[in-house]
Design goal:
By secondary structure, this protein is an alpha/beta fold. The chain is 36% helix and 17% strand. It has one domain: Rossmann fold (3-Layer(aba) Sandwich), CATH 3.40.50.1820. The protein starts with a strand and ends with a helix.
């Protein structure tokens, strides 16, 4: 397992798997062990995936200063990884909350990013609004699922600010195209892999300046893939379409039937989309 030093001395780890040119991958969570990305549905047949374990997650050290978990402060970690890999420019893929870090890195170092793929991205860094109705209307696409009624009731409670602790678990089926044993196991592992302290700091006050980030991304000259899941509650299509529109050269792909983890929901389609983009 290769390691390198962040600018503040924190020892960070990354994992290289697959064949082909390197593709740096930033995990979501926020602040989740990158192991959940796996081989991204078989993308390793086309690219060498460089999965970064963010500070305090996976095999990376816990930093001396917890404030360094803030998203904007981790931009320097990504830049240190680029230098460690000896790359002039990165092909960069980010999932979910990791898209916030990818957006900030691209805004700060546009000349260091060749191509950028944002997979079911979080939109906080760019200030795209998501309404309760955006989420509820997306949820209603699943109305024929056997688990739908209690899950939808829990989602309503969450969007109305009256959630009980059990409601957050009750909506878990919405995150997957198929709520089966594999999805249940993935969900349970997810909860164990996340650094909750770090997650609470990641998007804390001062982490994001959406106006400045949007202005910087508008001038980004590289190609961008923004991939949404058709039934993803975290990134409803309206919001993700708006996100794609922030870039000068972005391709929006909506993967049919996919929720928040499109490589789990339909690996063949996911790999077809991403491999074509990075070809």
């Amino acid at each position: 397992m290769p390691t390198f030093n962040a600018p503040d001395g924190t020892l960070l780890a990354y994992h290289a798997t697959g064949d082909g040119p390197p593709l740096v991958c930033l995990p979501g969570g926020p602040m989740q062990d990158s192991v959940y990305l796996g081989d991204l549905g078989g993308l390793t047949a086309h690219r060498t995936l460089i999965r970064l374990d963010l500070r305090g997650t996976g095999d990376s050290e816990t930093p001396a200063d917890p404030a360094s978990y803030r998203c904007d402060r981790q931009v320097d970690d990504v830049e240190a990884l680029r230098k460690e890999l000896g790359l002039d420019r990165l092909d960069l893929l980010a999932h979910s909350a990791g898209a916030n870090l990818a957006a900030l890195y691209t805004a700060r170092h546009p000349d260091r990013v060749a191509r950028l793929a944002l997979i079911t991205p979080s939109v906080y860094a760019v200030g795209v609004g998501i309404t309760a109705e955006d989420r509820l209307s997306t949820a209603r696409l699943r109305r024929d699922e056997e688990w739908y009624a209690p899950a939808y009731a829990a989602l309503e409670a969450i969007t109305e600010g009256r959630a009980a602790p059990d409601d957050w678990q009750a909506v878990a089926p919405f995150w997957f195209a198929r709520w089966n044993e594999e999805a249940r196991e993935f969900r349970a592992a997810e909860e164990e892999q996340r650094n909750d302290e770090a997650a609470g700091i990641y998007g804390s006050e001062g982490a994001f300046d959406p106006d400045a980030t949007r202005a910087a991304l508008a001038g980004f000259p590289g190609r961008v893939l923004v991939l949404a899941g058709e039934v993803d509650l975290a990134g409803p299509q309206r919001a993700i379409t708006e996100y794609a529109g922030l870039f000068a050269d972005a391709e929006l792909v909506v993967q049919d039937g996919a929720a928040h983890f499109p490589w789990l929901d339909d690996a063949r389609r996911f790999v077809a989309h991403t491999a074509r983009f990075f070809a």
